[in-house]
């Protein structure tokens, strides 16, 4: 029995849903409302000490970190495989996950300025102080403080956008031999990048995932969006219509 605590628009959650759907695994989904700070409640912190989504519960045991969860799922349910064949390629896959994970703050700068900023800016100083106390990491306390009181500036957004476009450049370079980030097949390295590319393409830098700017990446993106698991994972538009 698998339970996934996730958010529909959360990039890390999207990775795990992609992985589950590629493997055809059924799970019970539980949506965590970040605007209500449900992920910082004492109950949730027991299953995810970092206070972030997603968390997978498998046979009663919780697991956090989307990249780790995807690898765990692939080891536990190897068919179809989502890790490359050789130890070297698997190491490369982990380095992609690590690299992309390191860019999450650049996505937060764009993502939280929508729904979460609207909610957080209305909290009183007392409410905000109370909420900040429950956030386990200093960095995320700072991120919540920023969205609530001092939204990221145009300059900060430009710098974040430039870092995300560099990711696209790196992906373009990597895909040349096989059409995938690592080895000869779609893997967790590609899955790790999908939610980032989705956000970059739809809002952050909409003209970059194109045949003109990044031709290999544009082909990669088209192939991925055509996968039946992509549709089932429900990687819908980030912004509410
Ligand atoms: N490295 C973590 C990142 C998880 C993460 O940052 N999740 C975001 C949503 S995509 C979150 O829960 N943010 C809420 C917060 O920081 O308060 C993973 O891959 O699972």
TrEMBL record:
Domain GST C-terminal: 86-241
Residues making up the signal peptide according to the UniProt record: none
Keywords, alphabetical: Transferase
Stored InterPro entries: Glutathione-S-Trfase_C-like (IPR010987), Glutathione-S-Trfase_C_sf (IPR036282), Glutathione_S-Trfase (IPR040079), Glutathione_S-Trfase_N (IPR004045), GST_C (IPR004046), GST_Omega/HSP26 (IPR050983), Thioredoxin-like_sf (IPR036249)
Pfam short name (any one): GST_N_3
Any one GO CC term of the record: cytoplasm
Residues annotated as domain GST N-terminal: 1-81
GO molecular function, one term: transferase activity
Name recorded for this polypeptide: Glutathione S-transferase
